[in-house]
Amino acid sequence: WGLLLLSAALGATAAARCPAPCVCDNLRAHVLCLNGSLTAIPDTIPELTKKLDLRGNIFMVIPAGAFLATPYLTHLDLQRCKVERLEEGAFRGLGRLVYLNLASNGIALLYQESLDGLSSLQHLILEGNRIEEIQTGAFGHLGSLTVLDLRANALVYLPDMVFQGLHVLRWLRLSHNALHVLGSEAFAALPALRRLSLDHNELQALPGEALARLDRATRLDLGHNPITYVAEEALAMASLRHLFLDHASLQDVAPDAFARSPQLRMLDLRENQLQGLPPLAGAGGLARVSLDGNPLLCSCLLRPFHKWLARARVQAEGACAAPPALRGRSLDSLKPPEMRCSHLQPLPSPTALLEQPRGAGSRQCPGGCICSSDFHHGSCENRDLREIPQDFPKDTRLLDLRRNPFSTVPPDAFPGLKELVSLHLQRCSIRVLRPGALRGLESLVYLYLSDNHLSTLAAAAFEGAPQLAYLDLDHNAFTRVPAGAFQLLPNLISLHLQHNAIGELAEGDLAGARGLRWLYLAGNAIRHIAPAALAPTKMLEKLHLEGNHLSEVPTAALRGLPVLSELKLSRNPIKHMGDSVFLPVVSSLQHLYLDNLGLEWISPHAFTGLGPKIRSLYLESNKMSNIPDMSNFTGLEILNLQDVPFHCDCQLLPLCRWINKLNLRVGATCGSPAEAQGLKVKLSTTFQTCPGWGRSEAGETNPNKTKAANKPSKKKGLGKSPARGFSKSRV
Fold this sequence. Notes:
Family: Belongs to the small leucine-rich proteoglycan (SLRP) family. SLRP class IV subfamily.
Radius of gyration: 30 Å
Domain LRRCT: 294-342, 645-691
Organism: Picathartes gymnocephalus (White-necked rockfowl)
Number of helices: 7
Subcellular location: Secreted, Extracellular space, Extracellular matrix
Region (Disordered): 692-731
């Protein structure tokens, strides 16, 4: 009776405090304040409320500490409240909240502390806002989140590590944004992700490097993106089972495109522009492929794919669009003799096939090409054209001219295409880009010139394309960076010069590239970088130099790069690493790749200045005999020490303890002694005979005992070796 009376008293108190425009259900601890005119969070909501529904009010701003009076909330709904800003600490005190709905508001930016205090949150809905930017660390306090919904916002770019802290996230929803660039480490901090939704964006290529980080994801949605081609080994996702590439602009898929996704079972390629497919030999586990809505040409060219379907027992859905005798026939009903070569001819556009024959009233398009009115795309891919065709629709935004032997791009090659955004000229045997070749392309943002024979470029070649931001010159014949070529490109953000034959980076090579943010120089023969070579690129964020011939870290060249956050030096013959080699970039560097160097020695002071800002460090496949003190690398989320044959003796004990504190999977294994060979450093029992092991592992905190156990060294570092670092006595 006493408890009943107390409960009744509490209920009466709660009822008395229920805000006037709200309805309070005290039995279920629910409060509803729907579609009212509230302009501030009511401060008289019962303290014991668990579910609070505030949909349809006018809050504009959620101030710091807005819900401190209701610490027992588990569900909070703020849909359609015209919220434009979340102040730092807005949800502080809501440590029990598991569901937060902020859909259909006007939020434009997520700050680092906007979602602070939501340590138990499992489901966050931010659909239908105006979010253009997410600051790195914005989700850092959401360690329990399993679903993050960012659909229908205004995201264009995802920076590296933007989702750091979301260690148990299982579904990330990014559909219906404007994404066209993903940082290579954008998804690196999502070890538990199972499903990623990237459909209805502006991705023009499959973002393979970023997706490769998701080794546990089983479903990937990439439909409704203007992706025209899936390249060789483009997708490396070890656990992927379901891939959706429907309603894109696919015209070709490489035979081994999915060779590095061995678990793939279902491939959805509906409503693309595919005339056929090669045998997908790399997709050994594929069970079903959907090709409905593609203009399939059921000629002899389709026989290898048809034969592969039968041999691999893959179920295929789709029907022939041509030749006329086979139009409408399903793929599984075809017999090889019916697929003849006598009907082989260029197909008309998909819209002509599906809607009406071409005539006086139809959309203009050069002969032998395909022009899609739905996507504003034009394509003459692999038509053996010797000259660049003209007379494309004036509203064309993507033009695909790959695999034609043009050899030269003449002046004024693309007249009337003022709205063109993306131009594909890969594999066109181009040796010369004439001055004025791009004149008139005032909206051009993306230019793909990879896999050609270019060895030089003049600045005048880019005249008339001032908006060009992404320039791909990979796999050409450059022996040096074309000096001064970027003077007329003030908006150049990303420059790809990978897999050329560049031997050095000289002063003046990058003159004019003052807005450059990402520079990709992997796979060249660079032996030297002049100290002032990178001076014009003060906004540089990423520098990829992997697979070159550098014998040392180019420290002098890194000076003057105040925002460099990612440096890749992998696969360079750097055997030794001296003192303070990264000192010029310690204030900004977050991701450092030093793997596969054959590194034999690292100075104990090599990482001087680096510390909490470092998020990922790759040191795998090296031969070093010591590792510098990294105890102040407190922000590490990725550390790779695989294939380093550590000698697991007492000198390595500090590293063992540090790794255990990190709570990361680092892959460090013992190479010796014999009884520890192949064991994880964390699990090796060889440390149990080391002085002080028992006391420290039992939780001994006596500073005098700890100090005694670490003698004789008083030097700074995490070990007893003269190298003053994490050390091993032999490799």
